[in-house]
Design brief:
Layout: E1 2-3, H1 10-20, E2 25-33, E3 41-48, E4 52-56, H2 66-73, E5 79-82, H3 86-96, E6 103-105, H4 106-112, H5 121-129, H6 149-176, H7 183-190, H8 213-233, H9 237-240, H10 243-251, H11 274-285, H12 297-300, H13 305-326, H14 330-333, H15 336-343, H16 355-369, E7 373-378, E8 381-386
Parallel strand pairs: 1-4, 2-5, 5-6
Antiparallel strand pairs: 2-3, 3-4, 7-8
């Protein structure tokens, strides 16, 4: 494989993308910094196919990333392969308003192949290639320039190894017939809505016990204010106000700006400065949350009761047994909230009652809660036994 030098100009990048556009797939990775900022600071992009690989410096003066971004978001003939690519997709979305398509995530694929819930990249490389990845440059300062040869070699290795691993995984998926299992997961991962930072929806991230419309209305206004402050200052949300403080203010709002000195988690200076004024304006402009926006406790968290909680525990046990039997990560088969919903009586709209999940697990899960299956011990192992024939 030909490894290019660090690409720092648009013409060289455009030529590379023209060649990559003829590939069946490309592997993609990014290096970024986000510890001290709201927006991830993109520091390096690595791409490869089976013949060539390169690292691109997005911080290079005058470099236009459009050829590469178009390849990832406009060219639907080339499959884009990532490993644990959620944050990489977020960066592309922030730059374009779109996500790469079509895409493939090797971490998700590993779950279908029984290689763990969230296998790390280093373990994946070791498993498929027998190579021990040097992690020495993993936590380097990618924003510092110039990048040294070790940093670039480490970064490019992420995509060159992946370009060898992906065909091997694809072959295993084809032989096992499990490729179709991944379609829904890849669609979910690539949904642009996952990466849209809508200030009006920011309140949904904050945990709060109250369900009073006036409290939730204030929380919505305060979360929107914090989101805009964080975006404008390019600071992490928690650097503006922590979640717990936001929820406390929504529940017990100060009457005037001077009262902010009594709010735990806020600087005393906010009692007189502009940011404190903007916080108070958010509180004063808040309106009770409309009934249409109010979160539905019944739909999102069905009431289980004591017996229902025991049934959910049995379903989780069944999930462990079935995942082990078919050698697949249990999280790919079902999530805890789906099992709790099934135990609470929900029978529609659950992923485990549709498609391949129903065939592999959902049918037995449904029969268990309806009393048609039970557990027994044979030769020291838990197995399922039918207690009655399923109703027709």
């Amino acid at each position: 494989m030909h490894i290019h030098g660090l690409i720092e100009d648009t013409a060289t990048l455009a030529a590379l993308c023209t060649r990559l556009a003829k590939s069946d797939f490309i592997t993609v990775d990014t290096e970024f910094m986000r510890e001290n900022s709201y927006w991830p600071e993109l520091c390096l992009i690595q791409v490869a196919n089976t013949e060539e690989a390169a690292a691109i410096d997005p911080m290079a003066p005058g470099l236009d990333l459009k050829p590469l971004l178009d390849l990832m978001t406009e060219n639907d003939e080339v499959l884009k392969v990532f490993h644990a690519g959620g944050q990489d997709l977020e960066i592309v979305y922030n730059l374009t308003g779109k996500t790469p398509f079509p895409l493939f995530d090797t971490q998700v694929a590993a779950m279908a192949l029984g290689q763990g819930e969230q296998i790390g990249y280093s373990n994946l490389v070791d498993t498929y290639l027998g190579i021990v990845v040097d992690k020495g440059a993993r936590f380097t300062d990618w924003a510092r320039r110039p990048l040294d040869a070790r940093q670039i070699e480490y970064a490019i290795g992420d995509v060159t190894h992946l370009s060898r691993i992906f065909p091997k995984m694809l072959d295993k998926l084809r032989k096992s017939g499990r490729g179709v299992w991944l379609n829904q997961e890849m669609e979910r991962l690539g949904d642009p809505e996952n990466y849209r930072n809508d200030p009006d929806l920011a309140w949904e991230r904050v945990r709060i016990s109250s369900r009073k419309p006036e409290v939730l209305g204030r929380l919505k206004a305060l979360a929107r204010w914090r989101e805009l402050e964080a975006q404008g200052k390019d600071l992490p949300r928690g650097r503006i106000v922590k979640d717990e403080t936001l929820a406390d203010i929504a529940s017990n709002p100060p009457r005037k700006q001077a009262d902010l000195t009594r709010v735990r988690g806020l600087s005393a200076a906010w009692a007189n400065n502009d940011i404190g004024g903007r916080l108070m304006a958010a509180i004063e402009g808040a309106k009770p949350m409309s009934s249409a926006e109010m979160p539905s406790r019944d739909e999102r968290k069905p009431a289980l009761g004591k017996d229902g909680a025991l049934v959910a525990d049995l379903l989780k046990l069944l999930l462990k047994i079935r995942a082990k039997e078919i050698n697949v990560a249990s999280r790919l088969l079902a999530r805890s909230e789906d099992l709790e919903s099934l135990a609470a009586g929900v029978r529609h709209g659950l992923p485990i009652l549709e498609g391949w999940r129903y065939e592999q697990f959902g049918r037995d899960a449904l029969e268990l809660v309806e009393g048609q299956l039970g557990f027994t011990v044979r030769n020291g192992k838990l197995v399922m036994t039918r207690t009655e024939e399923p109703s027709k």
